[in-house]
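Sorry to interrupt, but I need a hand with the structure work. Leave the record below and I will have a look:
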Amino acid sequence: MQQPKLPLFKWPWEGLNNYKYSLYVPLILMALQEIRRRQIQSFSADFDQVDREYHWDNYILCQAWVATIGHACFPGLSSLPIWNYRGVISVLLLHMGPTELLYYCIHRAFHRGSLFENYHSFHHASTRPEPSTAGTNSFLEQLVMVSLMAIPILGVGLMGEASIGMFYVYFLGFDFIKFMIHSNVEVVPLWLFRMFPFLKYLLAIPSYHHVHHTKLDSNYCLFMPLYDYLGGTLNQEAFILHFNMRCKGQDRRAPDLVFLCHGVDFTSVIHVPYYWRTFAARPCSSQWYVWIFMPFIWLGFPVWGWRWAPSHVISKYTIGELNQETWVLPRLALQFFLPFGQDKINNLIEEAILEADRIGVKVIALGGLVKNEVLNGGGELFVRKHPNLHIRVVHGNTLTTAVLLHELPHNVDHVFLTGSTSKIGKAIALYLCKKRVRVLMLTTSFERFNAVRSQAPAKYRQYLEHVSKYEAGRFCKTWIIGKWAGYKEQMWAPSGTHFYQFTLPKIIEFRKNCKYGDSSALKLPDTAKGVNSCEYTMPRRVVHACHAGGVIHALEGYEHHEVGAIDVDRLDTVWDAAMKHGFRPPSRSSKIH
């Protein structure tokens, strides 16, 4: 049948086919921005809180067993009607009466003496309430909660007004409000309390419970502030906070530093705190259970969204007065090597730099392939294109090189260097030759070797030696890998060789009788607060050296852009600055099989 072609018959996005789902992306980003504005506490949870709340779902397991036992003890439950509005009203009234009153009294008791020290303090150890905090408590407290929830259920059952719908309304509503007041986001609008003023005594809100977590001596109610009012423990600061959060919101302070990175593989897509917090709190790995969630990854963050979405914040922390944010580009590592997509990637990087400059960020550090030499000359392309930038663009390779050099043994007298004419390789060669270390520079181009050698002081040039085959490293036990080396190449290294590397990705560890170093990295200072996720495969509180380089640039207040070639004379300066600010080499040792 011929379809009529009248106005408004076709949907505006009909031509997009399945790509229509990308239209959700702006809505999601707007929602995330609004959530960020309504956050009561802006600082992030730390690793301790993430670990403490790992088993937040214990209460669900407890309630499931209680429900199963209850069904076995009362077989007549299966014959209950689907709905009985009288039972729903009765269960709400019984909750508002004995359940709320008893909870208030018991909760106040749990804030005193040994009950608080041995039980309830575990819940309050989470300084930033989150939904998972709501389920984080002791077994004793959960038994008390189950007993209190049973009062309305048993009461309605004795009155003969129970229904299946009543169970769903009560339990789901109970959990919804419990999670809501622990959400750290003020979602309740002001107009609700203006139209119905008495509601502020009947419904707890996130701001109300936030005051309880910060003051500890007020706002003890479960969901009804009425009992705090009657008991003299109602803190009016909650209503002031509610007004401020809904009228003004959380003024977003521009970070001092942005670390701009990218996705690595599909596993890394969910290795972010807002997607899977407990997974992000551990070094990224392709465990079997991760692939079970792959369909949800595609549903939760569609390929179309990953394709068109701009860079966005995935984590943040503070070091003293320095605020840091990590922004991720919606690109995977493979896409950086596709010629047809490189212009789009550079446009995304440029947009991120200009946006950071617009909001007042002082330093933006480029991580991973974002600073690819072929792509944009290590950021030099953007600095030349926008000479009036207030923000400082930093590739971080100076500290990356310094970290690798300080990993070498103090008594090393010769090294075998691959990728020797690259930006980092050249800096390593020029630095080591001044230390009278013989450097075997592997390159097929004598011209490129000679260009590097000519930059060394004349009296040190004798320590730079050109080699064109891996065979030249067969007597050297210190290999610095700056270019991919496979099985055949690694087999030229003698037994006991230590492979230091600055190549991306890291080489495969074929040799069982050799040591393999990890990527250059540093451990954050103890003053870093709010760190709750691992930087890809790095251990906790350890960041890539290029990330740390951006932090040092901001802490030291350097006014120059760190792009293009590495200034060899600044290697020791940057390293000393990192040590001064509390950065340390990670405690992990190189792996030996």
